[in-house]
Specification:
Strand order of the largest sheet of chain A: 1-10-7-4-2-3
CATH superfamily of one domain in chain A: NagB/RpiA/CoA transferase-like
Largest sheet of chain B: 5 strands, parallel
Number of strands of chain A: 10
Shape of chain A: globular
Strand content of chain A: 5-15%
Radius of gyration of chain A: 27 Å
CATH architecture of one domain in chain A: 3-Layer(aba) Sandwich
Oligomer: heterodimer
Number of domains of chain B: 1
CATH architecture of chain B: 3-Layer(aba) Sandwich
Strand content of chain B: 15-25%
CATH class of chain B: Alpha Beta
Largest interface: A-B, 94 and 74 residues
CATH superfamily of chain B: NagB/RpiA/CoA transferase-like
Number of strands of chain B: 11
Distance between the termini of chain A: 59 Å
């Protein structure tokens, strides 16, 4: 199912679509309130953007330095070319330690790698410990948002899931009650699992450490109680210096949820006594994206989700309609790099309004990249043929003035006399759009009439008085 | 080997070198750091308590948390609040801690975060596994913003360190804020005016 088909299915429930839209807009408004309290916000974004540009232009050296420092800190560093190698490495580490059960805090990279399915196939139990992620895991669904994984679920549905899996009372849907049940359920997991996997928000090249940000405290509960800590990171997560965290931590939570900072910003440098710590540095298509000048900036992303919360298409189509680990505008420019054929629909899931680029804390030109992907996908032959045919017809009409005038007139007449010829479900443009009232005449006709009448107003347009024209 | 192939692909595909920005630290001007810190802490669900000295801090803690039996206090001068053994080897043995009272190295006014290096707590898990948390910091040790914080800090010096801002929380269920996710259910920050 492509994005527009999935979106159509999602929007069939009018009230739910409105509810979803409002939930996300609420987060966007919280973001705005937080941002307005920082007078230097734009300068911060610019600094973050420039740091990330520097990182991408010197990525190999920063990674080599990071690896060297991390090793000196007593951490084992692994490299994975793709999802398959990443998953195999995690499995190998667990088997070497005789572990068959693991807790995991939020990591979009492991979603991208489909780690949970792989582990299940190999007899390893993985428990997601972020509340939202646990909810979608119990529902056997992927997360629909990178920061709020179960934003698409109503509390009654979560109550039903918890009743079935955690034994909460039937019909109970109070968020406080449900969160308390999850706390008890997951605390038992934290206390009994010997391995923990976390993501990485930032990896510090100069010190070999990494930072994990959560509000719930689940990454820390997992990591500090486990004998084995595995941290998975994409190659683009590295930053040059610890001082740069000052910039990124000021931007991340404000952009994501409107908080001044996440509750916990945990800096890991060395394993604790008796613990082993592993870092897996993953490529999985990132170096290919780095080689695409038009799209490499997508690797600046710090995964705050602000572009999703503001996107009019995301808000009304839901994260699952993007069929990719990262949904929304940023997901739509990352996904075609991984698989053009499978994700050719995503750059079209946008109005190109540019709101995503405006809120992006690291100034990624998201909507420009969406537009550029459309051109590449069309060139490569991945765009639906009806769209292509339509564009061809339009191009020939627009390049021939006589044909253009004739078509315009014919169109206006048809819409006036026989509206159903355009306002019908066979016209793909009409689906989801109201056709406008056809004007009586074209601009060209109006202009010619105006000239004929002495250049001073027409029946369709009131004459402008001298005072108004002079602004008196 | 994947390492060498990844690095080679980066070298081949990376853009020309771009400089780091000239300016990546900024000033924040708050007239009163204690006041800003306290306001932000309330906003994120914590309780600020400004007291003149440790004696008042102790009075506040004894009164507020009188119903909590298992207490560990690591703040110099407040050790007498401790009611259970802390010389455990296995961090799992801390699962029954009701209240942890720990020293904060410094606080950040703009976001009410407090830096806790592992040297201050011994067991890394303590501030997370306890049911309730109290952090004690001197008002003289408040800085304006995160830029000042990292200037003051040598992150690599500690094997682990964490900024904690507020009690643990989640809004994953329909955006309803619930305090007390997996970490502490409540947080008080005691701000010491004299010491």
């Amino acid at each position: 199912m492509n994005h527009s088909q999935a979106a159509e299915q999602f929007t069939r429930d009018y009230d739910r679509t409105t509810w979803h839209d409002k939930s996300l807009w609420f987060v966007r408004e919280k973001r705005d309130r937080a941002v307005f309290q920082v007078p230097e916000w734009e300068a911060l974004r610019e600094a973050a953007s420039q740091i990330k540009h520097n990182v991408l232009s010197n990525l190999d050296e920063y990674l080599v330095q990071f690896e060297e420092k991390a090793k000196a800190n007593g951490v084992t560093v692994h490299w994975a070319a793709d999802a398959k190698e990443h998953n195999a490495l995690v499995l190998q580490i667990l088997r070497e330690n005789g572990v068959s059960q693991m807790v995991k805090s939020k990591s979009m990279l492991t979603e991208e790698c489909h780690l949970n399915d792989f582990m299940l196939q190999h007899g390893i139990e993985v428990i997601d410990t972020d509340l939202g992620e646990r909810v979608v895991q119990l529902a056997e669904e992927p997360p629909s948002h990178i920061v709020m994984p179960c934003i698409h679920k109503k509390k009654e549905e979560i109550g039903e899931l918890f009743h079935e899996h955690l034994g909460t009372e039937k019909g109970a849907s109070d968020p406080q009650y449900l969160a308390e049940a999850a706390r008890q359920h997951l605390r038992e997991k934290f206390l009994t699992r010997r391995a923990a996997l976390t993501g990485v928000n930032f990896a510090i090249s100069e010190t070999g450490g990494f930072v994990v940000c959560t509000n719930e405290g689940n990454a820390d509960m997992g990591a500090h109680l486990a004998d084995v800590h595995i941290a998975s990171m994409g190659i683009e997560k590295v930053i040059p210096k610890a001082a740069h965290l000052g910039v990124f931590l000021r931007l991340l939570a404000r952009s994501a949820t409107g908080q001044p900072v996440t509750t916990y910003s945990s800096h890991f440098h060395r394993p604790r006594t008796g613990q082993t710590m592993h870092i897996i540095i993953v490529d999985n298509g990132r170096t290919t994206q780095l080689g695409r000048p038009d799209f490499r900036n997508s690797l600046k992303c710090i995964r705050c989700g602000a572009c999703m919360n503001t996107c009019p298409v995301y808000r009304r189509s839901g994260g699952h309609s993007y069929h990719n680990a990262v949904a929304g505008p940023i997901g739509s420019i990352l996904a075609p790099n991984l698989d053009m054929r499978k994700n050719a629909d995503l750059p079209f899931a946008s109005t190109l309004c540019g709101s995503c680029s405006n809120v992006c804390p690291v100034k990624i030109d998201i909507h420009d990249q969406l537009y550029k992907w459309r051109q590449i996908l069309a060139e490569e032959g991945y765009v639906d043929s009806t769209k292509k045919q339509g564009m061809k017809v339009m191009a020939s009409v627009l390049s021939n003035p006589k044909l253009f005038r004739f078509s315009g007139k014919a169109g206006r007449t048809m819409m006036r006399l026989l509206p159903f010829t355009v306002s019908n479900p066979l016209n793909p443009w009409y689906r989801g759009r109201e056709m406008p009232e056809p004007p009586k005449e074209s601009f060209r006709e109006w202009y010619l009439h105006r000239e004929a009448a002495g250049g001073n107003g027409t029946p369709n347009r009131p004459a402008v008085s001298e005072e108004t024209r002079l602004g008196v | 080997m994947s390492r060498d192939r990844i690095l080679a692909a980066i070298r081949e595909n990376k853009p020309a070198l771009r400089p780091l920005p000239e300016k990546s630290t900024f000033e924040s001007n708050f007239p009163d750091l204690t006041e800003t810190f306290s306001e932000v802490l309330k906003f994120v669900g914590g309780t600020p308590v400004v007291v003149p000295d440790l004696a008042e801090a102790e009075t506040y803690i004894r009164k507020t948390y009188s119903d909590l039996p298992n207490v560990i206090s690591l703040v110099p001068g407040l050790e007498s609040l401790t009611t259970m053994r802390y010389d455990v080897v296995d961090p799992h043995d801390l699962a029954s801690v009701d209240l942890a009272v720990i020293p904060g190295e410094f606080g950040v006014a703009e976001n009410s975060a407090i830096w806790i290096p592992e040297e201050s707590v011994g067991h890394r898990v303590l501030p997370f596994i306890c049911q309730h948390l109290v952090m004690v910091v001197r008002t003289a040790d408040l800085v304006e913003n995160m830029h000042r914080a990292y200037e003051r800090l040598s992150v690599g010096a500690s094997g682990f360190g964490v900024f904690i801002a507020g009690p643990s929380k989640t809004a994953d269920i329909e955006q309803s804020l619930v305090i007390g996710a997996h970490g502490a259910r409540s947080l008080s920050v005691i701000l010491l005016e004299n010491s």
